[in-house]
Hints:
The structure is a single chain. Helix content is 36%, strand content 22%. It is an alpha/beta fold. It has 2 domains: 2-78, no CATH class; 94-285, Pyruvate-ferredoxin Oxidoreductase, domain 3 (3-Layer(aba) Sandwich). A hairpin with a 2-residue loop joins strand 2 and strand 3. Helix 3 (55-63) packs across helix 4, helix 8 crosses helix 10 and helix 9 packs antiparallel against helix 10. The protein is globular.
Amino acid sequence: MLTGSFRKRGRIWWYVVDGIRTNAVTLRESAYCKKNRLLPFAVEAIFICAEGISQAGMLAFQFGAAREREKLAKRVSHRSLSFERSMVISMKNTVEIRWHGRGGQGAKTAALLLADAAFKVGKFVQGFPEYGPERMGAPITAYNRISTEPMTVHSNIYDPDYVVVVDDGLLESADVTHGLKENGAVIINTEKEKEALFPLLHNYKGAVYTLDAKAISMQALGKNYPNSPMLAAIVAVSGVIEQEEFLKEMHDSFQHKFAKKPEVIDGNMKALELTFAEIAKSKKGGINP
């Protein structure tokens, strides 16, 4: 149990775990931390309960001299935190997804649409991008967390359950499987055979799915919009949303966004359905995993 801590110069100085005082590095590397799949940054989180102390007073408590902290200590209590129910949490009820794409391909839009659809079926969600240079074609990363319980972690995702690669050209410049769990999967938009991609996946041992999102998009929409097929692919592979629920929510979303363009609604829905069929065929035939 984490029962207390304080900060000095912006860093956690000590912890009390199961009655034993330890520092952040020791705790991060502890067997308890690894056993419960705790994220490194999460073990540094604390809740401080302060009664009648201003922000300036809290700063004095956290960063001031020892005498100042002693004066304020009687008015400050550290709430007892369980590892499972606080910012120090197990991620077993959360699915984490990392997207790799280029500006203009819709990776960010797909991550936000996935979060929106999951939210509408009752999940707790996060969906957010991380940009490099803000220009067309520049690499971007986007993230999703989808959980059945409230989430207090809001960082980037370093050990995802699934990775979606919207542009296979990124395989040569980025380690897209970095941190990816071996019981998860990577889904790659490519025209190439899966075997040709293995040397670029850094000996990843988990499932690898490939999808020609361009061909599906051209068939359904007449243009190359890879994000809709890749969005359906991650839902099909991860099972994070039931397919029927997902299709319903996406139809409602497209209908709201493209109310005056019914052909766009029909095209996007066809792209989603074609992708589900393609992934199902791959699973049945044992082609991908």
